[in-house]
Amino acid sequence: MGFDPALARAVPENAVRFLGHAEHTHEVPHLVHMVMGHGVLTAPGHRLVLEPRSSVWLAARVPHALDLSDHSIALGPVLREEISPDRPVAALGVVPSIAELMIARMAAGPTSPSQCDLFTDALERILVSLQQDAFPTPLPTHTTVRRIAFEACALPEATLGGLCSRHRISPRQAQRLFREQTGMTFTRWRRRRLLSEAARSLRGDSSLASAARSAGFGGREDLLRALSQETGVPVPEVRQDPRAHLPAR
């Protein structure tokens, strides 16, 4: 079942919403939202499988492509320059307020700049509210170590040694700079960063498995162990209600 493929091309300027698009960039931040179906978004260091109602927040000038499966619809509103995520690619998972707003926008069909601004302003308010991390992780100030930090979250399985060799810095020096500039070891810093991503998804009513996947954990048990390690709550208790053990906003 599904809509007739000819319908996807009925309005040429909107066909990209049904068909996806090749790699390109935007000069301003950008949101990719899956209304229905599934898609795969690729960006430097990222390959994200998008589920229905999930979103990805992209910084300005990040090259990205979107491959949509049959019977899928994606929207891509652009944002003001200052409404930017704190990393190049931020997987938000399912955020109900965003999903509901995107449906409302489709139903309203705004055309004039003032009408479009009403929906864009509402979306930007939601995104700003998501900026606060459940597990704060200050970024290192050292340029090379900051690059390693971003890559560490984009490539959760990469080791510190492997990341350091790519940037010609010793793991010992990188670890020292992580401690000095963030107050944490590299391992704990990355764990907290990924947990904040998972927390956004969980608060958006994503399943535990989906939250783990979108944040870059190996699976739900890996996410439960990480949350247990960070909160000090035994895994069996965390498993009963993971959301209850997230820090209050």
TrEMBL record:
It comes from the Bacteria. It holds the Pfam family HTH_18. Residues 228-249 are annotated as: Disordered. Coiled coil: none annotated. InterPro entries: HTH_AraC, RmlC-like_jellyroll. Residues 159-241 form the HTH araC/xylS-type domain. Residues 238-249 have a biased composition (Basic and acidic residues). This is Helix-turn-helix domain-containing protein. It comes from Brachybacterium halotolerans.
